[in-house]
Write a structure and sequence with these properties.
CATH superfamily: Ribonuclease Z/Hydroxyacylglutathione hydrolase-like
Shape: globular
Structural class: alpha/beta
Number of strands: 14
CATH topology: Metallo-beta-lactamase, Chain A
Order of helices and strands: EEEEEHHEHEEEEHEHEHHEHE
Strand order of the largest sheet: 1-2-3-4-5-6-7
Helix content: 10-25%
Bound molecules: zinc ion
Radius of gyration: 21 Å
Strand content: 25-35%
Number of domains: 1
CATH architecture: 4-Layer Sandwich
Distance between the termini: 11 Å
Number of helices: 8
């Protein structure tokens, strides 16, 4: 049962990018990517998450959200002077602030002394939002369907590149153009990683843009044949939904690493591995990683 210990982190090396965390349905989900300075969800808050300056909350369910206040409180307690940026769906922002104030009150902090973290409420949009502590990164939020409002997030590398029409133009000429106010560069944002908390399997096709990310991290709560209706009822993804989405999208899936997480507690570790191996189409099997 060791795979159910939420503070025992699993670490995956995805072409040199280390992702570390834990995700079992109902227990906890959190995933840190230190090299990008981001953490998705905080169903637990290990000390390793404290230096991370950007936290993305997918939805309000306790196994994903429970330790967000802890991250904020522990950083202050340990004297980290930087305010972390907390991103979450705008529709739950006021509720989250109320929750943190209620917790402060519960601990005896006078109402006018209760602080809340710096929240960035996001709505689904193609517009990209800059990460305050990482000028080289942007985030795109998109809706996924779950039993409560839920966002998925894509982190993108942001660069300014020379416009194609100026390729080969000598430096001094470019400088002269710039001086005349010509914008010779264009914004380029390349997806790096997409993370979804909880969603129905249909979201994987409705939000087909996610498959442009080299890394996609998705839930696979239910795995066993015959549990498809149960997954749909609970608004979670079944392994068969993932297989169907991959079959349907085929070559449009540019993703190199598809990380599965958030398995139901009912499965033993070996069972998860065997069911995943049996349920994923052969063409995609070598791209599947299991956060377990
Ligand atoms: Zn969950
Ligand atoms: Zn949930």
């Amino acid at each position: 049962m060791d795979h159910l210990n939420a503070l025992r982190q699993v670490s995956l090396d995805l072409d040199g990018l280390i992702v570390a965390g834990f995700s079992i349905s109902g227990l906890a989900t959190y995933l840190q990517i230190p090299a990008l300075d981001v953490c998705f969800d905080l169903g637990e808050c290990p000390l390793s998450a404290l230096p991370i300056n950007h936290v993305f909350l997918t939805h309000a369910h306790g196994d994903h959200a429970r330790c967000l206040p802890r991250h904020w409180q522990l950083r202050r307690m340990l004297g980290n002077p930087r305010a972390a940026a907390y991103f979450l769906p705008e529709v739950i922002r006021a509720g989250c602030e109320g929750w943190i104030r209620a917790e402060a009150q519960f601990e005896g902090v006078p109402e006018d002394g209760a602080l809340t973290p710096a929240f960035h409420g996001l709505v689904a949009s193609e517009a990209l939002v800059a990460l305050p502590h990482r000028p080289d990164l942007r985030v795109r939020a998109f809706d996924v369907r779950h039993s409560v409002p839920s966002l998925g997030y894509t982190i993108l590398a942001h660069k300014r590149k020379l416009r194609a029409e100026y390729a080969g133009v000598p430096g001094p000429e470019l400088a002269a153009l710039r001086k005349r106010g010509v914008d010779v560069q264009v914004d380029v944002d390349d997806p790096l990683v997409t993370f979804i908390g909880d969603c129905v399997g249909a979201s994987l096709v409705e939000q087909a843009h996610i498959w442009a990310s080299p890394i996609v991290i998705i839930e696979a709560t239910f795995l066993e044949p015959g549990e498809e209706a149960l997954a749909a009822k609970k608004m979670h993804t079944h392994l068969a939904d993932i297989a169907a989405a991959l079959d349907h999208l085929g070559d449009r899936v540019a993703t190199r690493h598809i990380v599965l997480k958030h398995f139901s507690m009912r499965y033993a570790r070996e069972q998860v591995l065997a069911l995943v191996a049996a349920g994923i189409p052969a063409a995609f099997r070598d791209r599947i990683r299991v956060l377990l």
